[in-house]
Design a protein that fits this description.
With about 90 residues, this protein is mostly helical. It is built from 4 helices and no strands. The protein has one domain.
Length: about 90
């Protein structure tokens, strides 16, 4: 995608493999996280990472999603507590 924006031509027959194509993962939860990481990388034209970096980015995304869910549940629980108290 980035190559099309810059006008740089890839060699004939060249196909950039996505993270999930290059590094098949046995755990089903990792595939959507690797997809998100790959979408971010391809959107901004970042060089494809190594397997270890791809796994690390997927774990980081999982941690961020977990934190957001915990914060949401905490705020919702506190709101329910305040409504029940009054």
């Amino acid at each position: 995608m980035f190559l099309a924006w810059t006008g740089i031509q890839a060699p004939p027959g060249h196909k950039t493999a996505t993270i999930s194509e290059r590094y098949p993962v046995g755990r089903p939860l990792m595939k959507p996280l690797l997809f998100l990481a790959n979408a971010f990388i391809n959107t901004f034209g970042i060089t494809q990472p190594s397997e270890a970096a791809a796994q690390r980015s997927a774990q980081f995304i999982a941690a961020l999603i977990g934190i957001v869910i915990l914060i949401f549940l905490g705020v919702a629980g506190f709101g329910i507590y305040l409504m029940a108290r009054s």
